[in-house]
Structure formats: structure tokens, C-alpha cells
């Protein structure tokens, strides 16, 4: 892996073409990226993260029925005028914020052929410079500068950079997984990625380091993706292309470095994790966090909070049948 100086990560790609089947029927007519997390859609957290890292040129790779994403990052003149007439400056600022987050572009993936194909579809827009890829299922706390660290790492080592996070061994089969080794003289949070496997079989994972949804990629990844065939699930996997880059560190743009993240990550990938993310962010909200935390603390000790109905032995699970 060769050192690369003066690289500038100026563009980000956000794949947003998924159908959101785990959240049906909520996502039948609403893109999963537009589901609210407390008081703004999940996708806005991701765009704000890119902005904080100094990346203002953002391409969203979407699919059919995703026009709500474009509407959200556009101006809503009628709504703004109504708020101006009411002199509701607070809500006016909130509405305008999403339209003022960088320069957001949109392209359609066309066919749902996987994350690797979604990234490949961004080739013309990205060009020949390193770029970031941010997945919307993972929200990174604004107090943690993961993406900034990854951009810095790509500038130091070249190649591509993936975000890694330790997960329990009984959960690693749900993620892409990395086999890693130490980098001489590097800080503890940096590792060399030697191999990657997408959702390894239980008991066969090379480590407990999961790939979470942040990447900084060399533009040479496009050439690799162009000849990467369908992998797990019959889709073109970004992990497979990164494996080739990791195993060929001396090729232009080759080599993969891992940033081991130990900060605050909010997983919105399935219903239970989405609810956990909602609560974790709600108790920190500047407007009502302390009130919500106090209510939650009291409520959890009630019969309802324990899932029991007064005067019966039924729990919510028994009663509701969900």
C-alpha cells in the first residue's frame, strides 16, 4: 500500500434505492430513508454528517418511488411563506435547513443489482478522485468524527478505507467482516485489511470486526466493480470489490485500511434497532430530552412499561399477537 498525499475527498455517494421491505407496510409509499428519527428523516442525519466532514457535493442513488427524497432537499416555497406569515422563525429555519445542505444530486440506479452496482452508477459524477460512501442505515453521532478520521486516513495511506466496529460474535454473520493485521507505527484505531467476507457463516468469521456503513474509496474501485460478478444474494457486492483491492495493495489505488470505530452508532436497519435509535436520540434532544428521559424512567416501572395489563397475567406479546 503506497502513501498518497494531498488527496481531497470532495464528493459523497449515498445509496438510497432499497425497497425497505423490513419496514412494510410503512415503506409501501414512503421511502425508508424518509422515516423519521425523532424529528427529522434518517437521510438528513447522513447528509449533515457529510457536511460536517467538509463534503458538500452529494449524489444520492435512488430508485422508483423515491421522489420524496428530492422534495425534502428542495425548497418548499408555500410552506416557507406560510411560516413567514406566522413569524414562526424556528420552524422556518428547520424547513430551510434541509434545502441548504450542500449540493445534492440524484441519479436512478435503474435495476436493484446491489450496493456495488449502486456505487458503480456514480462513476460519471465522481470522476477520478477519492470519494465517500455513506449508507443510510447507520447513523453516526454528531459528537464522533468517524468520517473525518476516514478522510484523514485515506490521505495518509491512499487506497480505500472502511469503517469497522466490534460486534458480538453471535451477530457477526449479519455483517460484512474483515480479517486484519496491525500497521507498524500506526495508532490503535487503524488496521490493515487483508481479507473481507460478506455475511460469513456462523462460526466461520475471521474476526468480530464488522464493516459498518461508511467507506472512503479510491476511484479505481470503479474498474474493479465493472468486472465484479454477482455475489451473495445474486447482487454485485461492494465487499467483493474491496476484497480484490485488499489482496492487491500494490496496484494503483489498491490496499484497504480499516478505521476501528468505538463511538456512538445508531442502527436503523430493522424495526427493533430503529426503535432503540429513536429512544437514544430522543433522550438527548435539546428541546425535550430531559422531559422524555424522566417520563421513560418512570414509565418503565409501571405495569404498562413491564408489558403487563392491570388485573391480568397477560403481557403485550400475549395480548396483541404481534
Which sheet architecture does the biggest sheet show?
5 strands, mixed, barrel
CATH class descriptor name of the largest domain: Alpha Beta
Counting DSSP H or I runs of 4 or more residues, the number of helices is: 12
Order of helices and strands: EEEHEHHHEHHEEHEEEEHHEEHHH
Q: What is the arithmetic mean of pLDDT? A: 89
Summarize the amount of helix as a percent range.
25-40%
Strand order of the largest sheet: 8-11-9-10-12
The second-level CATH architecture of the largest domain is Alpha-Beta Complex
GO biological process, one term: UDP-alpha-D-glucose metabolic process
EC number: 2.7.7.9
Protein name: UTP--glucose-1-phosphate uridylyltransferase
InterPro entries: GalU_uridylyltTrfase_bac/arc, NTP_transferase_dom, Nucleotide-diphossugar_trans
How would you describe what is shown here?
The chain is an alpha/beta fold and 322 residues long. It has two domains: 11-269, Spore Coat Polysaccharide Biosynthesis Protein SpsA, Chain A, CATH 3.90.550; 270-301, no CATH class. Helices cover 32% and strands 21% of the residues. It is built from twelve helices and 13 strands. The chain has helices at 42-52, 67-72, 77-85, 89-99, 115-120, 123-126, 146-157, 221-226, 238-246, 271-282, 289-299, 316-320, and strands at residues 11-16, 36-37, 40-41, 57-62, 103-108, 131-134, 138-140, 160-166, 176-182, 190-198, 209-217, 256-260, 265-267. The strands form three sheets. It has a five-stranded mixed beta barrel. Helix 3 packs antiparallel against helix 4. The longest helix is centred in the middle third of the chain and has 12 residues, at 146-157. The protein is globular, with a radius of gyration of 21 Å. Residues 1-6 have low confidence and may be disordered.
Amino acid at each position: 500500500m503506497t502513501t498518497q498525499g494531498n488527496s481531497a475527498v470532495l464528493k459523497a455517494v449515498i445509496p438510497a434505492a432499497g425497497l425497505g421491505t423490513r419496514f412494510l407496510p410503512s415503506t409501501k409509499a414512503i421511502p425508508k430513508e424518509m422515516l423519521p428519527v425523532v424529528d427529522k428523516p434518517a437521510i438528513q442525519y447522513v447528509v449533515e454528517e457529510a457536511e460536517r466532514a467538509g463534503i458538500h457535493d452529494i449524489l444520492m442513488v435512488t430508485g422508483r418511488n423515491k421522489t420524496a427524497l428530492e422534495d425534502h432537499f428542495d425548497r418548499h416555497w408555500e410552506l416557507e411563506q406560510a411560516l413567514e406569515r406566522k413569524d414562526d422563525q424556528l420552524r422556518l429555519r428547520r424547513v430551510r435547513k434541509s434545502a441548504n445542505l450542500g449540493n445534492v444530486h440524484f441519479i436512478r440506479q435503474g435495476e436493484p443489482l446491489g450496493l456495488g452496482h449502486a456505487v458503480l452508477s456514480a462513476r460519471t459524477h465522481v470522476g477520478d478522485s477519492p470519494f465517500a460512501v455513506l449508507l443510510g442505515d447507520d447513523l453516526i453521532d454528531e459528537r464522533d468524527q468517524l468520517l473525518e478520521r476516514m478522510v484523514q486516513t485515506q490521505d495518509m495511506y491512499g487506497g480505500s478505507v472502511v469503517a469497522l466496529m466490534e460486534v458480538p460474535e453471535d451477530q457477526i454473520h449479519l455483517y460484512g467482516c474483515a480479517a486484519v493485521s496491525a500497521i507498524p507505527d500506526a495508532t490503535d484505531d487503524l488496521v490493515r485489511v487483508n481479507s473481507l467476507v460478506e455475511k460469513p457463516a456462523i462460526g466461520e468469521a475471521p474476526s468480530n470486526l464488522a464493516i459498518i456503513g461508511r467507506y472512503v474509496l479510491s476511484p479505481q474501485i470503479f474498474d474493479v466493480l465493472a468486472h465484479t460478478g454477482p455475489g451473495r444474494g445474486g447482487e454485485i457486492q461492494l465487499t467483493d470489490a474491496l476484497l480484490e483491492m485488499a489482496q492487491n495493495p500494490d496496484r494503483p489505488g489498491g490496499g484497504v485500511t480499516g478505521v476501528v470505530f468505538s463511538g456512538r452508532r445508531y442502527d436503523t436497519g430493522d424495526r427493533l434497532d430503529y426503535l432503540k435509535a429513536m429512544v437514544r436520540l430522543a433522550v438527548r434532544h435539546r428541546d425535550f430530552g430531559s422531559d422524555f428521559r424522566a417520563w421513560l424512567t418512570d414509565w418503565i416501572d409501571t405495569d404498562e412499561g413491564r408489558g403487563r395489563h392491570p388485573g391480568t397475567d397477560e403481557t403485550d406479546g400475549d395480548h396483541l399477537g404481534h
